[in-house]
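Dock magnesium ion; give full complex structure.
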Amino acid sequence: MIRSAASATRNPCDKVIQESRQDRRRAAIGATPLIVPRPQHGISRANISENALKVLYRLKQESFQAHLVGGGVRDLLLGREPKDFDVATDATPEQVRQVFRNCRLIGRRFRLAHVHFGREIIEVATFRGGAVPDGDADDRQIDNGRIVRDNTYGTIAEDALRRDFTVNALYYNIADFSLIDYADGLADLDAGRLRLIGDPEQRYREDPVRMLRAVRFACKLGFTIDAATEKPIFGLAHLLADIAPARLFDELIKLFHSGYGREVFEKLRQYGLFGQLFPATEECLAREDHGFPITFVSRGLTNTDKRVQEDKTVTPAFLLGVLLWEPVRRRFEHYLAAGESTNEAMFLAAGEICARQQPLVAIPKRFSLPMREIWSLQPRFEQRDGRRPQRLITHPRFRAAYDFLLLRADAGEADPELAAWWTRFEEANARERASMLEGTGKRRRRRPRRAKADPSAGPDTKV
Ligand code: ATP
Ligand code: MG
């Protein structure tokens, strides 16, 4: 059983923290860790995944140091269920591979060992060193302040200071089940404070994704971002442009599919980060901050949050479809007004916005294709003549597209009558559907074709 969050606020480590705080202030951060022995903290092995424990014990057996670290420790202390368990050790990735048969080494920027147990992966990282570039250019490459390659190994103390937030730098030592805190993480955890280790601006420049992580953890944990950690974000959001688009996609999914996406959205906008990730959307929102575009995105994210909390499936296709819809819709209207057919207008609009988005956040094809289908089905909901509704309802993407239509109607962009008609149609049996279709008439409504110059007419005459 995991301790409740309420009891976690009355942290059993409180006394130890208080007593040690003054000493710690005197000591340089990281020089002497605060060590909380087993009886004085709330982490129990019963709450740690069996596979993580296997990895920790096995490393210890092989005479390596082995610690649980990162989100696993943080979340256990807060009485939350950890998403995954990360292990830190003094064994090199190659040594880890020798210990575990079910192990794969991954990563270039950071070399890590992944130990596989069916669907569960325990990530094992070797202690990193060299908080200051040590001249070994092959192991730690810095490009314009940004760390592009980083495989210098070090001690646990160095490793702690290389982590991002103080609350993410707590170690649970399998040798004696104690907690080790080099960065005042326990005090911050207790205060609900998110604080970067070291100089915040420098840490963001080293890895700008930390700005997104700050937002993610603030929302996920309900923590306040410490003023010094918060301040540089406003001026550094543009650094996200240097991050690999595939990494940003992964980060976005973590941000928006964790059950607090609406709050994340608001915070990302507040810090100017959202516009870096979705400039076309931000342009629309900035112009019309109170109308349906913002309502649409907010409600879409709230729905996704609800689905995540209810353990229902969510797909990046729908999420990104929501986030990019407004600019797509505007370009769609533009192309329609220019005389393109409905299909062509949607095809052009979607292509244009995706092409703009792709260099920033790489959306894998398996999500961008269904996302574009959801969009392209939207105008088809308006075509209710003949057998079209019957055909549309059997489309494999109907359900997602219909949910999308409901959201549009709910936000005041699509006709609520139309959405209500589709709800009735979807729920009706075959006979009821046939009678509903009788009322829609058989004549196909066509948009006027694009006006083309008639070669037989005079130079200024259009047909
Ligand atoms: P969660 O898994 O709940 O999303 P987490 O804190 O475990 O949160 P991970 O991405 O799993 O986050 O990373 C594990 C740990 O690795 C972090 O807690 C942190 O100590 C360290 N870490 C991850 N990313 C960075 C980074 N960009 N800069 C510095 N340290 C990092
Ligand atoms: Mg983790």
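Observed: Confidence is low (pLDDT under 50) at residues 1-10, 21-28, 132-138, 451-463.
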